[in-house]
Design goal:
It is built from no helices and four strands. The chain starts with a strand and ends in a 22-residue tail after the last strand. The protein is an all-beta fold.
């Protein structure tokens, strides 16, 4: 942390989904931050600033699914 964060598109392989949560099998590393809202119109390398999840505007994000290997 402390450095400037920038948006980068990353190709991922997805696995099982329950309609709210989708397992990401490849393309992300543990601990990486992802953009889940406000990504419309983002350009590659554009500076971004994380903000806390706003429980007033949205429900709490779902808990992660247990890891399932193919």
């Amino acid at each position: 942390t402390g450095g400037q964060r920038t948006a980068h598109r990353v190709d991922v392989t997805t696995g099982p989904s329950d309609g709210e949560r989708t397992q990401v099998l490849t393309g992300l590393e543990e601990g990486q931050e992802i953009i889940v809202a406000g990504y419309e119109g983002l350009k590659e390398g554009q500076p971004v600033e994380p903000v806390p999840w706003d429980l007033k505007r949205s429900s709490e994000p779902p808990a992660p699914l247990p890891l399932q290997r193919p």
